[in-house]
Design goal:
With about 60 residues, this protein is an all-alpha fold. Helices cover about 85% and strands about 0% of the residues.
Length: about 60
């Protein structure tokens, strides 16, 4: 199993665990807020590089 797949499985497991113990709004805040906060901590050059790589993977 690749590292990306392991992270995805861990994220799903964590999401299900949080869904049981926390209200919906808190789970939504964590699921949306953590990646958004991580993106905001990147330098502008890192953000451009991430967008460029993402577009290439999509097929543009």
């Amino acid at each position: 199993m690749s590292n990306t797949a392991k992270i995805a499985v861990g994220g799903v497991a964590l999401g299900l665990f949080l869904w049981i113990w926390l209200p919906f709004w808190a789970v939504l805040l964590i699921v949306v807020g953590v990646p958004a906060a991580a993106y905001m901590t990147l330098d502008p050059s890192q953000r451009r590089r991430l967008r460029r790589v993402s577009r290439k993977e999509i097929g543009h």
